[in-house]
């Protein structure tokens, strides 16, 4: 069962191939982590899969080409959390989270009780409810990230794509983020995240490793082939070991 199938021959910007030769199926009802060195093309691939970046090829969402989805239906089906998003700094945290509910109601209609309940639940899940009346621009990096995560959760989409969702989060809130992801996945949703935190990516259900704009490996995080591929791409200074039954990756 595939939530999203990306076939990308080329993604060129200014005549440069940023991403190429991708044939990637993201499993439904699973958490997939995309990892790779700086500049490997992770964010570019994620943006292409979200329909935010043109490319030569095709992305199938639930078997239907992305371009054939009516935009509101697609926005209810695929939630997006980008990196370092700007533009909403003057809105209160609650209003930012309510933006996640826009695809659920008619154009210019005010939020319904169901929208408010979804926003409240999402802000409780990311422990950001106490800042609901504060402007987004006044929050710290981690606080802001938790509000943006709540906005993404409030969409309640079957597929969520997140680019570096753990940036600025302290370790307890990183663990909370994983718990939220686990809840969504156990409810049958699919989550895809670009992560730099390899020790957390190794807790995912499925790992996608990128290098030089294309796929270097896909597989289970516990698979020795996956570990060998990680060491090949990141180099011998990456040490992969098991602690308390969990795989971790440490820079040496
Ligand atoms: N708009 C753009 N114009 C030109 N080059 C770009 C553009 N966006 C990204 N790139 C280049 O494409 C390559 C891939 O960038 P991308 O942000 O996808 O990498 P990444 O794997 O997410 O990196 P990081 O881990 O550093 O966030 C990089 O070499 C980057 O400099």
Provide a descriptive summary of the structure in words.
- The chain has 252 residues and is α/β, with parallel strands linked by helices.
- It has a single domain (2-224), classed as P-loop containing nucleotide triphosphate hydrolases (Rossmann fold, 3-Layer(aba) Sandwich).
- It is 32% helix and 30% strand.
- It contains eight helices and twelve strands.
- It has helices at 42-49, 71-77, 93-99, 113-125, 141-155, 171-186, 198-201, 224-234; strands spanning 2-13, 16-27, 31-35, 56-61, 64-65, 78-81, 159-163, 190-194, 206-211, 214-219, 238-243, 246-251.
- The strands form three sheets. Strands 6-7-8-3-9-10 form a six-stranded mixed sheet, with helices on both faces.
- Helix 3 (93-99) packs parallel to helix 5 and helix 4 (113-125) packs across helix 5.
- The longest helix is centred in the last third of the chain and has 16 residues, at 171-186.
- The radius of gyration is 18 Å and the shape is globular.
- 39% of the residues are buried.
- Bound molecules: adenosine-5'-triphosphate.
